[in-house]
Amino acid sequence: MKILLPSTGESLEDFVDNKFGRCEFYIIYDTVSENFDIFRNSVFDIEHSAGSSLALASINYGVDIVIVSRIGRKPFDILISANIRIYKSSEHSTIRNAITNYLLGKLPVLGNNSHSEAVFQPHNLN
Asked: Fewer CB in 10 Å around end: N or C, the chain?
């Protein structure tokens, strides 16, 4: 199973970034091999649809799970429609802790009937 997490840096000790599409890095962790890959997010600075672009990349990578602290409505909808499960990490969780908490069943799942407005990133109108 592959898990994608937006990251503030390039290690498992960095934090889950609260900007899904605008994260500078993202990590894909494979629960079978227990290995991970770190990617620089090439779309974090595009003017529009960074979150949607990362959601579509998640599909292309064959990701099964996304763990976020916050996410925009459009990427959320893209991931849900692709049957990718979304889990919520705490605001100040490291990547390692988020993965561990997911594996222990301690993260809440988000879905069509469990929207929490606190999870969604506000739109930047500037």
From this structure: C
Helix (H, G, I), strand (E, B) or coil at 40: strand
Q: What are the domain boundaries of the chain?
A: 2-110
Pairwise CA distance, residues 8 & 19, whole Å:
9
Which residues, 6+ apart, have CB-to-CB distance to 113 below 8 Å? none
CATH topology for the 2-110 domain: Nucleotidyltransferase; domain 5 (3.30.420)
Q: Which pTM was predicted?
A: 0.86
What is the per-residue DSSP string for 50-98? HHHHHHHHHHHTT--EEEES-B-HHHHHHHHHTT-EEEEPPTT-BHHHH
Confirm if 82 and 20 have CB atoms less than 8 A apart: no
